[in-house]
Design goal:
about 525 residues; alpha+beta; 6-stranded mixed beta sheet; 18 helices; about 15% strand; globular
């Protein structure tokens, strides 16, 4: 999950080291923003000169209120969404496959996921943080039959995208290719080779470690990275989610070829895999290709369930000294795991609606309105939940001037507490649910979007009605349930708050912990 802040031109984007959870594409405000911009474009040419002086007096709610006066909207029919048809089957090796036939473009997207993220590093070696990441880095860097340059040349000649990546709880190998046999069949063969016979060449491993160590050193100059690392370590303690996916300066040098081979043989196996395919294929072709892709995978064993982390029982404040005019702030708590039953899914939808009102990234959100617009402490503040196999984090992030850090934090907590106490209102809820419903189709507007959803659903073993009933879950959202879910979920009195900047906002308090 990525939080973008832009206090000044020298403030960097910072990224929390979490699963993308998979995405926040449903929590956008595309419709409202588009309408607002359209209205602005229509009005500006005729009245820009006369109204420029009085612009400061314009009511910011006017664009939304004006919608009720547009008679053309009275005849707009309710949104009808046709969800892609998902077909399911298992390969001969037992790998579950979700397939969507999409004939509009001559393209095939393949998404093979393993329950094998960086949370499994410690199972290979107690101090092996970074092993999964290094495996993902090296899979496309040569096989036992094709050296690195030859493998790269073969991929480039075919014009395909073939890559591997790792997150806290999943390992992904993906392929995008033209759907004709001339391109697809050799591409699948390359994907099979990198999965089953990677070389993990010693010289390439040494080069990768050297480059990674440089990157890890550079992270020390990035306040966002420092905040994210400290946040995860404090929130998760000894849990496997605590350490950075890329490893640390202490652990990366010790990674060996044996570590990589052990990880591959233990976790990149059929029993631990799920496959998603979207594109211009028949069901028969998809089955044949899925069998070909997974036939040589070792059967192996399914990964053990990850332990559930324990939530913090009291507030914790961590400050990391950093020479900057800005203070980066990351606050939050332990969140939820990915919901798999209808009741829990409805609760997560309720929370998503309430949180969009409270901490969404658009200018209608309460935190954005108060902390940016009214108080002028930041150019951007937002927060989101990142559900994973085990409980993921809930985080709110922003950056502000050093001398305003404590005031901005206190004001943010006050907004959260006020929202929990009084609740959101019906107008805010309706605006948000409309945005969610109208932006929903964008999630499967492309082959890649469809396949990303398929891969996520297959990995977390979500039923097809998770997608089919999305609009229904939003329509079932009711204001009392939204407010109650917010109160049940968020505990600002026990928030973990990490600050990275020149001055310690907690210098005169007793509950501060300084990290060097």
């Amino acid at each position: 999950m990525t939080y973008k802040t832009s206090i000044s031109p020298n403030v960097k984007t910072f990224t929390t080291d979490n699963i993308p959870s998979i995405r926040k594409s449903f929590l956008t405000s595309t419709l409202t923003l588009s309408i607002t911009l359209a209205l602005t474009a229509l009005v500006a040419p005729a009245y820009a000169d006369e109204n420029r002086a009085s612009a400061a007096t314009i009511d910011t709610s006017a664009p939304i209120a004006a919608l009720s006066k547009l008679s053309s909207l009275d005849n707009v029919k309710p949104l009808k969404v046709t969800v892609p048809t998902i077909e399911h089957f298992n390969t001969s090796s037992g790998v579950p496959v979700a397939f969507v036939r999409a004939e509009a473009l001559p393209i095939v997207d393949i998404d093979l996921r393993f329950n094998a993220g960086s949370a499994r590093d410690g199972d290979i070696r107690a101090d092996g943080f970074g092993i999964a990441n290094m495996v993902a880095t090296m899979l496309p860097q040569g096989t036992t039959t094709l050296a690195e340059d030859d493998f790269t040349r073969a991929v480039e000649t075919l014009g395909v995208n073939l890559d591997s990546s790792v997150y806290k709880d999943m390992f992904i190998v993906s392929l995008r290719s033209l759907s004709d046999d001339e391109h697809l069949l050799p591409s699948v063969e390359l994907m099979t080779q990198m999965l089953t016979t990677p070389s993990f060449d010693a010289k390439i491993l040494a080069r990768n470690k050297a480059r990674l160590l440089v990157g890890l050193q550079q992270q020390k100059q990035d306040p966002g990275s420092l905040a994210s690392i400290a946040f995860n370590q404090a929130l998760y303690g000894t849990h496997p989610y605590a350490h950075p996916t890329s490893g640390t300066l202490d652990t990366v040098p010790s990674i060996t070829q044996k570590d990589l081979t052990d990880f591959q043989k233990r976790y990149l196996v059929a029993a631990n895999a799920s496959l998603a395919i979207t594109g211009n294929l028949t069901l028969s072709q998809a089955k044949k290709m899925a069998d070909s892709l997974t036939a040589d995978l070792p059967v192996g064993k399914k990964a053990a369930m990850l332990p559930e982390p324990k939530p913090l029982t009291k507030a914790q404040h961590i400050h990391i000294p950093f020479p900057s005019t800005q203070t980066t702030v990351l606050m939050g708590q332990l969140g939820e795991k990915r919901a798999t039953d209808p009741k829990a899914q409805q609760q997560q939808t309720n929370f998503a609606v309430g949180n969009e009102v409270l901490a969404g990234g658009d200018f209608n959100a309460r935190l954005m309105t108060e902390i940016r617009q009214n108080l002028g402490y930041t150019y951007g503040i937002s927060g989101s939940m990142s559900p994973m196999l085990a409980r993921g984090p809930y985080q709110i992030g922003f950056a502000t001037r050093n001398d305003k850090a404590r005031a901005a934090i206190d004001a943010s907590i006050e907004v959260i507490n006020d929202t929990l106490d009084k609740g959101i209102n019906n107008a805010e809820m309706e605006l948000t649910t409309d945005n969610l419903k109208n932006s929903f189709p964008m999630g499967f507007a492309s082959n890649a979007g469809i396949n990303g959803l398929l891969g996520m659903m297959n990995f977390y073993q979500l039923p097809d009605d998770y997608l089919n009933n999305y609009i229904a879950r939003i329509d079932k959202v009711q204001l009392p349930a939204v407010n109650q879910t917010l109160r049940d979920t968020l505990q600002p009195d026990t928030f973990l708050i990490v600050t990275v900047g020149e001055n310690n906002p907690w210098k005169n308090t007793k509950d501060s912990k300084k990290v060097k």
